[in-house]
Amino acid sequence: MSFCSIDQLIGQTRLVKLQRMAAHTNSTVLLKLEGDNPAGSVKDRPALNMIVQAEWRGTIKPGDRIIEATSGNTGIALAMAAAIKGYKMTLIMPDNATEERKSGMRAYGAELILVSKEQGMEGARDLALAMQADGKGIVLDQFNNPDNPAAHYASTGPEIWQQSQQQVTHFVSSMGTTGTIMGVSRYLKEQNPAIQIIGLQPAEGASIPGIRRWPEAYLPGFFDKSRVDQIMDITQDDALTAMRRLAREEGIFAGVSSGGAVHAAIKLAEQHDNAVIVAIICDRGDRYLSSGIY
Prior knowledge:
about 290 residues; alpha/beta; Rossmann fold; 8 helices; Cysteine synthase; TrpB-like_PALP_sf; pyridoxal phosphate; Cys_synth; cysteine biosynthesis
């Protein structure tokens, strides 16, 4: 008898159609449900790949300690992957993250270090590198590690192409580390250069978990602006409104960045005839309940 292990369940997430929210258009909006991954988000894919590739190169070995700065989903995914592979895990994140995210990391056995909201992700990244310099562990560096977008080139992109029956015309993704959009863009453009890649960033003043407007000095090292055809600013209200409608009208319980992606996808559906628009639903809504957004 042959049985799978939990890491083999990462990927092959479902692609589902919006039933009501885009019904006033003649385009099709499809949602990639990444919350179905074992640790609950799209970050399961790069988290496992970064560890597997680091093992293959000999950078890490079981029993080592990994250090990573995270805003939440990558941390939970890395904590799961570290538990699977036998690594110790230290995660550094801003203290304004939801309790569900903090508890999820600890549940997988990770040690959690909090920096202030003011220090933010930039401060968390700086601290991770300082700890590595002090010999306290190894930083995988999701923001500059090419194994991050490579995971999406190898899995997310091909899945979208196949599941959309090669009909996808637009791909919409929130931009945090930008690993998802970089990897998927590369793959889809190789299949059909006409496919439009739309990246989302928060509008000025918006604070949307998982979407960043990076200062130039902290831009992810693998980000290539030429791979993104259009960048859309997403307001807090638009992301939250679409997120709540997604649950109430479509039965899809997702996080705030996913609401932003759906808002953008519907706008595109209104602007283009007979388009097939695929948007990434990064995670599940239960990760945000304590914040009161529902």
